[in-house]
Write a structure and sequence with these properties.
By secondary structure, the chain is α+β, with helices and mostly antiparallel strands. It is built from four helices and eight strands; from the N terminus they run E-E-E-E-H-E-E-H-E-H-H-E. An eight-stranded mixed sheet has the order 1-2-3-4-5-6-7-8, with helices on both faces.
Length: about 170
């Protein structure tokens, strides 16, 4: 990764939400080409307002079902991440690896890709780690990383986390 910058569009609100415009520049390890991704990242506790416009959604919660529920309520998001303590469940919309075009309601939620589970390495995990992780996942998908390789790609870019194997991931 070359850089990841986030510019606040709204401040943290009383409900814990904030909206950021994120710009990530990745370096293709094979060609050395720069891949630039810009997206809107929304920290939310309910799918209202800005959440409906977010490319990346981050919310408190636990498990693949919670991630699926949030993804289904905001089908325009390419990446949804829910977190609890040292774990984060990340879900990318299936068939949208290019990052182009929104999905459609329940059909998009049903067709969503698998959930990748990450665990913080070491003690304590700031909210910012999950924010960065979700934004990096969006950038990897836009860069063409297949959804099946997303866990390994993001874990390589974010040294504070590790991707759990599906059998250890939990619900």
């Amino acid at each position: 990764m070359a850089s990841l910058t986030a510019t606040a569009l709204t401040a943290d609100r009383a409900d814990g939400g904030a909206v950021h415009r994120v710009r990530t520049v990745l370096v293709d390890p094979v060609t050395g080409a720069l891949i630039v991704d810009e997206h809107v990242r929304v920290q939310c506790s309910a799918p209202t307002g800005w959440a409906l416009l977010g490319d990346v959604l981050i919310a408190p919660g636990a498990g693949a079902r919670w991630a699926a529920r949030l993804a289904g309520s905001c089908p325009g998001a390419l990446v949804v991440a829910v977190h609890h303590g040292a774990r984060c469940w990340l879900r990318a919309a299936a068939g949208r690896e290019s990052g182009l075009g929104p999905g459609s309601g329940e059909a998009a939620a049903a067709a969503a890709g698998p959930v990748v589970v990450f665990e913080a390495i070491g003690t304590g995990c700031a909210r910012g780690t999950w924010d960065r992780l979700a934004s990096l996942a969006h950038s990897c998908l836009v860069a063409g990383v297949p959804g099946t390789e997303l866990g390994a790609a993001v874990a390589a870019l974010e040294p504070a986390v590790g991707s759990l194997p599906p059998g250890r991931a939990g619900a």
